[in-house]
Amino acid sequence: MNELKLGEKAPDFNLLSTDGGLFSFSDHQKGHKAWHLIIFFRGEWCPACNDYLEEIEKSTEKFANQHTHIVAISSDEIDRLKELVSAKSLSFPVLSDKDRAAVRGYGVYIHKEDGPYEDHGDHNEPAVFLVDDKGNLLFQQKQTGPFGRPSPHDLGKTIKYISKNLR
């Protein structure tokens, strides 16, 4: 598993978006001089992920006021992710990482079919990364299961704290 260090450049990725296009993180960064909150989630089938993404959606204005864009990534099928975006009215980019290139690049945990407990086969687990406007990693939180993610409120506090204390 890739171990990212704070302050280092965050890995680039090019993934299929639910809007039908190819999303290039480096191109998006160039076009949006903002911080980015990259949220990895398990998939459309995960109720805890659905609830979390709905909470994030309700906080998009707060994140925008902190000059922070949201990008969500799952290794789920693009058609299922399109259904999720439609059902939950998600306004931020939702990307399919079917080959798990971004998952591996960011060192996100993968639950395998032969894991210690049964859980919907192979899939990535949740993780959250904060990347600054220069592409440097400022925060990371990875999980080995669906619960315990930082709330949108706590993420907002984290963004505020880091922005006030940057070197």
Structure description:
The model has no long low-confidence stretch (mean pLDDT 92). The longest helix is centred in the C-terminal third of the chain and has 13 residues, at 152-164. The protein has six helices and nine strands. The protein starts with 13 loop residues before the first strand and ends with a helix. A hairpin with a 5-residue loop joins strand 8 and strand 9 (137-142). The chain is of the alpha+beta class. A seven-stranded mixed beta sheet has the order 2-1-5-4-3-8-9. The protein has a two-stranded antiparallel ribbon with strand order 6-7. It has a single domain (14-164), classed as Glutaredoxin (3-Layer(aba) Sandwich), CATH 3.40.30. One of its GO terms (molecular function) is antioxidant activity.
Features:
single chain; 167 residues; alpha+beta; Glutaredoxin; two-stranded antiparallel ribbon
